[in-house]
User: What shape does this take?
Amino acid sequence: MGPSISSDQLQLVTESEMEKGNGGRVIDVALSPSEKPTISSPCTGTTIAAPSTPVSTPDRTQLEDAEEGYPRVAAFLDSDASFTIYRRFGFLHARLLLYKQDELRELEDELREMDKRDWKDDSFQNCLRSRGKDDAPKNQHGRSSRKELLQRIEKKTLEYGELLRQSKELVSWNTPSTRDYTSVVNWLNTEAPLSEADCGFIKEKQDLITLRPGREHAWLDAFVERILKAFHCRLIQVGSSSSRRVMPKLI
Assistant: This one.
């Protein structure tokens, strides 16, 4: 059995390596079976082999390491669920829905007109009673095919339905709380990472949604924040820039 290492010693070794500037990376050294360390449990007194592969957590781009501009804005918005605020583009969805709706209206009128025309013509009445006869080339006689028209209708209907579902989902998402919205606005005003035009999305407050899950515990966050302010505690400032540009306030 290899040399025994207690859990406290293993933690000290890990912390020591991190303090040497390894950036939290775990250095895996190949050891022979007889040299591999073991961990002694202070609770049970048993000795187990230390894991050969260290457990790591996914890396996340650090705000201070992100390049200025859009990379830093993306890192900031990703740093906390409260900051995941984006536009819904409700007006554009409405315009697209209206456009596709009217396209379908035209196709619907075309289909109704074709049905009426065929019903008035004795030679085509059977086409309305049998899909097979309606699709037969001999029954086309240079006229537009009902099958081709229905295929066009299907394509437009699927596009329209998908856009409807997407619009419904976006409408059902939460709007950002005043506190979260103000936090993002203050950061954008302070850091000025983008041009004024590119930061303009945050002005469209009525069109903003948050990806943050249900805010059933938002009251607790607000309570803690009020307590910190009451005791004049200095809040942690997320990210800092050595050179900050001055730009007009967004709101």
